[in-house]
Amino acid sequence: MLDSIQVRSDVKKLSVVIPVYNERTTLEEIVRRVVRQDVGMQKEVVLVDDCSTDGTRDLYDRIRAEHAASNILVCYHDRNEGKGAALRTGFARATGDIIVIQDADLEYDPKDYAALLAPIRSDKADVVYGSRFVGGGEHRVLYFWHMIGNRVLTLLSNMLTNLNLTDMETCYKVFRREVLEEITITCNRFNFEPEITAKIARPNRHGRYWRIYEVGISYAGRDYSEGKKITWKDGVSAIWTIARFGRPRELLFVTVLGAFGLLVTLAAASWLVRLVRFGVF
Ligand SMILES: Nc1nc2c(ncn2[C@@H]2O[C@H](COP(=O)(O)OP(=O)(O)OP(=O)(O)O)[C@@H](O)[C@H]2O)c(=O)[nH]1
Ligand SMILES: [Mg+2]
User: Fold this and answer.
1) 16: part of which helix (H) or strand (E)?
2) Using CA atoms, how far apart are residues 168 and 152, in angstroms rounded to an integer?
3) What value does the mean pLDDT take over residues 169-182?
4) Which residues are bridge partners to 15 per DSSP?
5) 142-158 pLDDT, tens digit each
6) Calpha distance 177→14 (Å, rounded)
7) What percent of the chain has pLDDT over 70?
8) In this structure, what DSSP letter does residue 63 have?
9) 3-state SS, residue 276
């Protein structure tokens, strides 16, 4: 696939940034999968351990020894700060021309890298999101309400960024180096997802918008017994972050629309109560 596209000559190295928190059971395997994946350019792996306490920290020497021929860098946080903070550390250390975020569990498959990198390599995109909700890749069937939650957060984020993404919360986000050089993540936890999405939707320092693409990816979600950690609290925090970083004009529009919807609902309810009182029903 990569051979058939026109490749940007300035794209020579991929950095895979992996935030890691208590992933003892999956870390070695995900690093193997990442290292094994041929991306047609140099590759470095930046592991950021977010103060794991489950024995994950004992694995890094073994990982370095197993992949002695590969370019693997390990950074350590001395207290747990969250995925956003781990990525901030990882981005600062990454030296690639393209940077991809890779979770340390086995939900996202590095085999999707070729498809994710293609729009950047062919100079169509500056940012690529891997969507779990489009395309024909295989998907594990899991929680309905989590899917609804993801859709609602993506909808709210789209309303306030004027983007038409289908999966704002996806782990697979790929950036040209230049994009990340202009963006600082301030949110430490999972709310960095709406923050970074809002920031790539803004004009860059040349006054132009970044070119954003989406590609379908496979997804092997895990359940809580397998280590799933995300909770409804992360959803609430995401909504607040979407509002906080949304574009002012869209925020005003959505607020007016919401207030109007609320008024219409209240008026309809009050008419209904009157009709019931007057014995119409
Ligand atoms: N939960 C959590 N993950 C962190 C933290 N710091 C770094 N991470 C890493 O961030 C990545 C995403 O975390 P996950 O818990 O898999 O989050 P998710 O994929 O959105 O949600 P589930 O896998 O469905 O729980 C993983 O590689 C974690 O190891 C942290 O403080 N908490
Ligand atoms: Mg996960």
Assistant:
1) strand 13-20
2) 10
3) 97
4) 44, 99
5) 888 888 999 999 999 99
6) 10
7) 97
8) H
9) helix
Taking residue 75's Cβ as centre, other Cβ atoms within 10 Å add up to: 16
228 lines ligand 1 (CB under 6 A): yes
Which atom of ligand 1 lies nearest, measured to the CA of 85?
A: 6
Strand segments, DSSP code E, in the chain are: 13-20, 42-49, 71-76, 98-101, 127-131, 173-176, 212-216
- CB-ligand 1 contact for 23 (6 Å cutoff): yes
Q: Classify burial at 148, counting beta carbons within 10 Å of its beta carbon; exposed 0-12, middle 13-18, buried 19 or more.
A: exposed
Cα radius of gyration rounded to whole Å, the chain: 21
Sheet of 13-20, strand order: 71-76, 42-49, 13-20, 98-101, 173-176, 127-131, 212-216
Pull the structure tokens for residue 112.
């999707």
Q: Is 193 in the pocket of ligand 1 (CB under 6 A)?
A: no
By residue count, the chain amounts to 281
Pocket of ligand 1 contains residue 188 by CB under 6 Å: no
Tens of pLDDT, residue by residue over 107-139, are: 999 999 999 999 999 999 999 999 999 987 788
DSSP, res 8:
P
d(CA 194, CA 161): 10
Distance, CA of 60 to CA of 26 (rounded, Å): 13
CA distance linking residue 57 with residue 80, whole number of Å: 13
Q: Which ligand is nearest the CA of 106, by number?
A: 2
Best mutation site among 47, 87, 105 for ligand 1 pocket (most ligand atoms within 8 Å of CB):
105
Q: Are strands 42-49 and 71-76 parallel, antiparallel or unpaired?
A: parallel
- What is the spatial distance between Cα 26 and Cα 35, in angstroms, rounded to a whole number? 14
Whether 108 lines ligand 1, by a CB cut-off of 6 Å, is: no
Q: What is the pTM of this model?
A: 0.90
52 backbone dihedrals φ, ψ, rounded to 5°:
-65, 145
Residue owning the nearest CA to atom 14 of ligand 1: 229
Distance in angstroms between the alpha carbons of the first and the last residue of the chain: 65
